[in-house]
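Section 4.2 – Deliverable D4.2 (structural model, holo form)

The reporting period included a commitment to supply a predicted holo structure for the target in complex with fe (ii) ion. Inputs used:
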Amino acid sequence: MPSALRIYIGSTAGATAGLCAWFVLGEFNIPWQAFLFFSLLVFLAESFCIDLPKAGAVSITFTIILAAMVLYGPALAALSSVFAAFVWRDMKRGTEPIRWIFNGSQYALSATAAGWTYIATGGVVLTEAGRGFNLMDFPFLLVPISLSVAAFFLTNTLLVSIAIGLAEKMRPLDVWLINVRWAIPNFFTLAPLGLAIAEIFMAAGYIGVVLFFAPVIGARQTFQVCKRRRGTDLGTIQSLIAALEAKDPYTRGHSERVAKLSEIIGKELKLGEEALETLRYAGVLHDIGKVGTARYILRKPGKLNEDELQRIRLHPEAGALILREVSFLSRVVPVIFHHHERYDGTGYIDGIAGDEIPYLARILTVADAYDAMTSPRPYRARLPKDAACQELVDCSGSHFDPKIVEAFLKAIDYSPQALDVPEGQLQFNEV
Ligand SMILES: [Fe+2]
Ligand SMILES: [Fe+2]
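Output (structure tokens):
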């Protein structure tokens, strides 16, 4: 860990310790029962965060801190926030204490900034005001609450961006723009949950808040179970890919490259994130059905005979059968099933043509063909990129969807006029 980062974390921890000492020893009259309750909630919220599918995690710790702030003011909110340092799985894994210290400190400093902004802009500490928080009060509290959420967000993301910047040797502003900016809507949509907790607390006390959280924890558990299942399914598929790569050395890297190329075409065609994800999975898995093809066929150095061709041509169907069992890959199945159809209807499995072929399958076909042509095969050397592009152009309308070839060539910045490849010289016999 760079020494600048150590000094930075040390300073935030020092500032937090100073603030906490002031809150505890000063004239703040901390209600200790409420402090213990909200500290426990912070600990639970931070420990039971939800992992995001790709990276990172979302927790509702901020909503608890917001509720504590509105109910009891900045001092109690900041003191409870320190408990965000203790995360159950970090404790189990034995993560370095410096990470715990930083997490607790940055939450406490952000809570303090939010609390002071709330009070300074006319926010009311509800338990002191001695009245229930109801919707009639809401418009009047809207400004201080919004400003305190903004203060929390800015302090929190600034402290984290500086830490990442020091660790990764990046400018904190760049870290903020790349990694943090997307969290803005998240903070503002979580804020009403914090207010709901405050209102429940005013109306029904501790028991009300506990009852409120029971279904939230239930939903979170269900989500985690689904995610774990998805992880297991992906693990199984990765072992299948590994088995295929061991059997057919020519597939090694091919699947990954087809996924990448399909995604490039998809982006050029302005597809949405869901379609791009389907393309990535389809690319990686498109030849998975070849696990069922005999090794001698996959590795045969010469041309395949009719019987061998028939057998290898079963792989799109076999792939679709394997993946049909995996629920979250249902959108990938038709793409794989049809990835050897041709635009003029002379392909396989179904021999369908034009727009009957699923759009994503037509994209995958172009990516697959380009990568197959530009990689060496047992029966021929690799084709130069320009020659492969020319082949795509020549087979536009027969083998490939012309719009997709056009998008691909545009995406890789290729201009067909620049080429002078004699027609009929190239052979493209991929199966
Ligand atoms: Fe294939
Ligand atoms: Fe392929």
